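Here is the promised in-class demo. Please do not try to memorize the tokens; focus on the logic of going from shape to residues.
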């Protein structure tokens, strides 16, 4: 464990290969109705908050009913898959154990981790592709005093892929925070923004020591691509690079 890493963090620089552990995936389902799709940035932010809500839920901790699945998942790669649902599909997804997180226009339901080949039927039949969303207006500048998940300006991703990567970034920030900072973030409702910086700002961010997500390359982008920098105020100027392959 790097010095200063929050106690109990699953992140270990010196740990055994995360590929050797049984692989699980965290399912997220975005509600995308034809008549009223969510804005892209709001969907990304809502997905990131959904991951944080799942990580901090009492059912995910200690002897909670989801705790074993959460530990098994975090012992391996922190894979996340975003699928889309509408109408009756969404209602079937809502009937399964999970948590729905609502943004300004987005709804995302997150479920306890499942084995890669063990998806519930109601989720397995949902589509992964086709999650293409737009922002009706450019996002406003992020609050510099709040957490920001910075997306790589030079890597093109579908909305579903970007939602998963934003979730990775939020999770890396959560792992690195102290218990007190985690509690403060949770009690505030997990405020955060997802933004895309200019290329020169991106290069500075990746060298800043903040947690960096490098994609494992299972879908869409090349292995090792840096996708997100997790910029939480409590982690600024920490001076130690942390990375995780999602």
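The designed amino acids, position by position:
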């Amino acid at each position: 464990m790097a010095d200063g890493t929050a106690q109990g963090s699953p992140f270990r620089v010196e740990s055994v290969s995360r590929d050797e552990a049984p692989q699980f995936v965290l399912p997220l389902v975005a509600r995308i109705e034809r008549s009223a799709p969510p804005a892209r940035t709001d969907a990304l932010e809502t997905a990131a908050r959904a991951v944080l809500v799942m990580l901090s839920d009492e059912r995910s901790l200690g002897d909670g009913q989801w705790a074993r699945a959460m530990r098994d998942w975090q012992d391996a790669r922190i894979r996340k898959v975003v699928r889309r649902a509408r109408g009756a599909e969404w209602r079937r997804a809502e009937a399964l154990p999970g948590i729905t997180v609502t943004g300004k226009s987005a709804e995302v339901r997150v479920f306890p981790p499942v084995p890669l080949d063990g998806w519930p039927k109601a989720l397995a039949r949902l589509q992964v592709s086709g999650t293409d969303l737009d922002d009706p207006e450019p996002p406003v500048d992020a609050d510099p005093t709040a957490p920001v998940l910075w997306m790589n300006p030079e890597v093109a991703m579908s909305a579903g892929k970007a939602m998963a990567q934003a979730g990775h970034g939020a999770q890396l920030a959560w792992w690195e925070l102290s218990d007190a900072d985690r509690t403060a973030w949770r009690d505030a409702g997990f405020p955060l923004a997802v933004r895309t910086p200019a290329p020169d700002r991106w290069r500075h961010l990746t060298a800043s020591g903040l947690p960096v997500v490098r994609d494992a390359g299972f879908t869409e982008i090349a292995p090792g691509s840096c996708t997100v920098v997790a910029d939480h105020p409590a982690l600024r100027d920490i001076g130690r690079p942390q990375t995780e392959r999602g």
